[in-house]
Amino acid sequence: MNIAKSVFLWTLCGLILFGSFAFAENAKTIAVVTMVQGEAEYQKAGQNWKPLSFGLVLDDGDKLRTGTEGFIALVFTDDRTELKIRPNSDIVVTAQRNDDYSLNKRVSMEVGELFTNVSQQKGSMEVATPTSVAAVKGTQFWVMVNADGTTDVLTLEGIVDLMNLLSGLNMDVGQGQRGTSGADGDVGVGGYTAENLPQFINEAMPKTIEIEYTDEEGNVRTLIINYQDAGGEE
Fold first, then answer.
1. Which pLDDT belongs to residue 200?
2. End-to-end CA distance of the chain, in Å?
3. Which of 211, 214, 209 is CA-nearest to residue 225?
């Protein structure tokens, strides 16, 4: 295998910006891990579970899980959609790449809590649970899945279309609303208070990310990203 190392240096203000061309050579690459705290693991197809590390490039179908004090943040490569995965969560990230390099993104979560921030949507984004699918229309929202599959969606901005997979019922969950989709097939929408929102941990982001990935020709490339942290919590 030929080994070639290419370094791209981008200086960015604010959140990490991934141009779709940076990963276009590798159709499997869909996201990058930007933060790991506590117990967090990943599993690629045909491999054992391994400790998750900052800067790991995620491929279509990778599995992630967090322990009792674990936390993972990741960014999708096409449109900077952010996921923040809280403790005791178990997810699979999948995506299909379109001709314009945008991704049709799907996060499947068996149990746990995650926050999604879709700021400049390309392709599509949805979160699937054992009972429901939450489809995004450019928004910030929480998804919380209980052990019995009951799914709560708390929308901070925008609109989420919440559909129950058992009954086919669906409802829009708008800003300031909480949608609940249960194992009985029912879907309901109401309000929520600040006390209902999970709390973020301190997220002091490092200033440099160095990521290695392999293109379709077997060349190992290194992407170095320097940026200024916008600071603060969501």
1. 67
2. 43
3. 209
Give the tens place of pLDDT for each residue, 2-42. 433 333 333 333 334 444 344 444 557 899 998 999 999 99
Select from 85, 80, 156 the least CA-distant residue to 125.
80
Of 89, 88, 85, 103, nearest to 31 by C-alpha is 103
Closest CA to 33 of 64, 7, 10: 64
**For 188-232, how does the pLDDT look when each residue is reduced to its tens digit (9 = 90+)?**
999 999 888 887 655 554 555 566 655 556 666 665 555 444 333
Q: What angle do CA 74, 79, 82 make, to 5 degrees?
A: 25
Residues 6+ apart with CB under 8 A from 35: 54, 71, 72, 73, 203, 205
What tokens does 48 get? 């054992």
Burial class (CB in 10 A: 0-12, 13-18, 19+), 54: middle
Q: Extract the tokens encoding 234.
A: 């969501």
Q: What is the Cα–Cα distance from 43 to 52, expressed in whole angstroms?
A: 9
Q: What is the pTM of this model?
A: 0.78
Task: Give the C-alpha separation, 57 to 201, whole Å.
Answer: 23
